[in-house]
Amino acid sequence: MSRIITTAEVKKHNHKDSVWMIIHNDVYDVTNFLDEHPGGEETLLDSAGKEASQDFEDVGHSEDARELMKKYKIGTLPAEEHNQAPTQPLPAVVTCSNLKWYILALLGAIVIGVVIKKKLAA
Ligand code: HEM
β-strands 3-4, 73-76: how paired? Predict the structure, then answer.
């Protein structure tokens, strides 16, 4: 069973002798992986003690890397500290009502344009 580890606990492991990081709500101890990391020791040290999901994903790690990381997992964040997924797309209904206002504004502009044109012609 996976151990529950808090963000505060992870933060303490932010130096070369002990490098922990959070990736997708799981906690990894990569201290013994520093020398072997193909992306270099520095990149891992930069993420030491931190939430590193975004950095990890930005690199586009392979399936092999994702398989390998299981070896370094030491625990999971408590549920109340779980990071939410990145911003969800807007619900269709919101987008729809935005579109309605754009159309109304456009129609309003056309009407005003026509009225002004008529006044100028008169
Ligand atoms: C448990 C955590 C991690 C594991 C097991 C891991 C493993 C690996 C592996 C196996 C590679 C070789 C390329 C691949 O197979 O994708 C790699 C490359 C790399 N990793 Fe990680 N990595 C971890 C975390 C991180 C983090 C937090 C960063 C921060 C930015 C990072 C940055 C990089 C970079 C820059 C490369 C080189 C990419 C390239 O040269 O194309 N890695 N990593």
Answer: parallel
- Beta-carbon count within 10 A of 25 CB: 14
In the chain, domain spans: 3-81, 89-122
- What class does CATH assign to 3-81? alpha beta
* Nearest residue (CA) to ligand 1, atom 3: 69
The per-type count for the chain, helices as H runs and strands as E runs, is 5, 5
Q: Smallest Cα–Cα separation from 72: which of 52, 54, 86?
A: 52
Token output for 95: 């987008």
| Segment holding 27, helix H or strand E | strand 26-29
pLDDT of residue 95: 58
Q: Whose alpha carbon is nearest atom 7 of ligand 1?
A: 65
Of 77, 10, 85, nearest to 50 (Cα)?
A: 10
CA distances from 21 to 15, 33, 75 (A): 11, 12, 10
Ligand 1 center–CA 13 separation, angstroms: 19
pLDDT, tens only, 46-61: 999 999 999 999 999 9
